[in-house]
Design brief:
Structural class: mainly beta
Number of helices: 1
Radius of gyration: 26 Å
Helix content: 10-25%
Number of strands: 10
Shape: elongated
Strand content: over 45%
Strand order of the largest sheet: 3-6-5-4-9-10
Order of helices and strands: EEHEEEEEEEE
Distance between the termini: 62 Å
Largest sheet: 6 strands, antiparallel, barrel
């Protein structure tokens, strides 16, 4: 049996042109899936993952968040590609607002209604001098994002990112 017969078929079964067209279509579909849906083929050798903690702060929140969160809840970025880590801890802080001072100016006071929340998120990723990624998300200091937890979402700002030994 010859590799290519007189009808230009591979092993007498598949036409070479049909095979090339099929491979091109599969390649285009894989590229489209990666661009549109973020599907990526992961390499067999991945770099060692670091343990990372990220502190984020939500400011001037009117609702009580405490009943809606639990330690260990998965945390993601709204519109992100996956889970960044888990909720390690949180604390409630007084929210500072500007209020009229009676002389036509403003002064900073603690709000009786609004609260700030600080969340500590722990996950794995890569931490080097050029970039930080948690899970599948690139993160950076002072970045603003919508934090997504199982029972709610809220806008937050990254306050601190640190590598945990």
């Amino acid at each position: 049996m010859r590799l290519i017969d007189k009808d230009y078929r591979l092993f007498g079964v598949v036409n070479i042109i049909d095979l090339v067209v099929a491979l091109v279509v599969i390649g285009v579909l894989a590229l489209a899936a990666r661009v549109l849906f973020g599907v990526q083929v992961t390499p067999a050798l991945r770099p060692a993952e670091d343990r990372i903690e990220m502190v984020v702060r939500a400011t001037q929140i009117q609702i009580a968040v405490d009943p809606m969160v639990s330690r260990g809840d998965p945390v993601a970025r709204l519109g992100g590609a996956g889970v960044m880590g888990t909720l390690e801890s949180w604390q409630v802080l007084p929210s500072r607002i500007e209020a009229p001072d009676g002389e036509g100016g403003f002064r900073v006071v603690e709000s009786a209604v609004l609260r700030d929340y600080e969340f500590v998120i722990r996950g794995t990723g890569t931490f080097d001098d050029k970039s930080v990624s948690m899970g599948t998300e690139q993160v950076r200091q002072y970045q603003q994002m919508d934090l997504l937890l199982p029972r709610f979402q809220m806008p937050v700002r990254v306050v601190e990112i640190r590598k945990v030994d």
